[in-house]
Task: inverse folding
């Protein structure tokens, strides 16, 4: 599926978001919500692999070029309201899919707006990353984006020092990670400032949760997944074998195939 248009949507308060549309604009399809340290461009290969919906709309959340700034009033509520703007623009959306923080946003939106199906890959909820917030804040205040990337990979995701050094060797990739770390501290602060509802996705006809096989039952992503799962009634639980949190980067075709199999009739 090819990208056909990029659209800019006003969300008020001095900001805006863009969406990348793949397939047939104007048709009821799938809306994708990326999480932290990610943008719409990072999801292009997954969007291109999906075939079960006639269109895929990938949200470029605020704080990411070419979308607008987070703004001083930013909160988790802001993200849900932004997603509702997307749903208003693409009326008849059949399914929401969110990854990580984006999974939480999608599940919360599906608690407020009727949607046929909501799918979340390793959604996170508080207290995810809470222990790292003081160090992230200090790094953000000095614009030490290298340190921010190190913190999210080492102290939050639990990757090894060798893994981080491997990332550094890809100079273009490291530059992207530095850029995407700009809104990280504010986003994690918003995630941890808001207690999640006891029941999520209550207005979705169907809910599906995906866990990477390598993360099942392990901190931080597997344990946060379990916390979310307890709040999503009657959710189907699915595993993507051999994958971790970054399946959209490391196995986009496999993730696209799994999403196709989960397309509700």
Result:
């Amino acid at each position: 599926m090819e990208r056909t248009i990029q659209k800019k949507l006003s969300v008020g308060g001095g900001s805006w978001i863009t969406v990348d549309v793949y397939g047939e604009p104007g048709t009821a399809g799938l809306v994708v919500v990326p999480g932290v340290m990610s943008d719409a461009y990072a999801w292009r290969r997954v969007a291109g692999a999906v075939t079960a919906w006639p269109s895929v709309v990938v949200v470029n959340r605020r704080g990411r070029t070419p979308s607008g700034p987070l703004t001083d009033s930013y909160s988790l509520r802001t993200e849900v309201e932004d997603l509702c703007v997307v749903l208003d623009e693409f009326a008849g959306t059949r399914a929401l899919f969110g990854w990580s923080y984006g999974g939480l946003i999608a599940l919360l939106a599906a608690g407020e707006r009727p949607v046929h199906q909501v799918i979340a890959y390793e959604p996170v909820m508080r207290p995810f990353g809470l222990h790292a917030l003081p160090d992230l804040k200090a790094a953000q205040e000095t614009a030490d984006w290298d340190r921010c990337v190190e913190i999210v990979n080492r102290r939050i995701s639990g990757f090894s020092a060798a893994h981080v050094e491997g990332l550094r060797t890809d100079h273009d990739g490291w530059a992207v990670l530095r850029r995407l770390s700009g809104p990280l501290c504010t986003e994690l602060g918003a995630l941890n400032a808001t207690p999640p509802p006891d029941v999520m996705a209550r207005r979705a006809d169907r809910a599906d949760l995906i866990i990477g096989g390598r993360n099942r039952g392990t901190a931080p992503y597997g344990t946060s997944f379990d916390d979310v799962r307890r709040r999503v009634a009657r959710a189907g639980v699915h595993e993507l074998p051999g994958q971790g949190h970054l399946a959209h980067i490391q196995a986009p075709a496999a993730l696209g195939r799994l999403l196709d199999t989960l397309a509700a009739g």
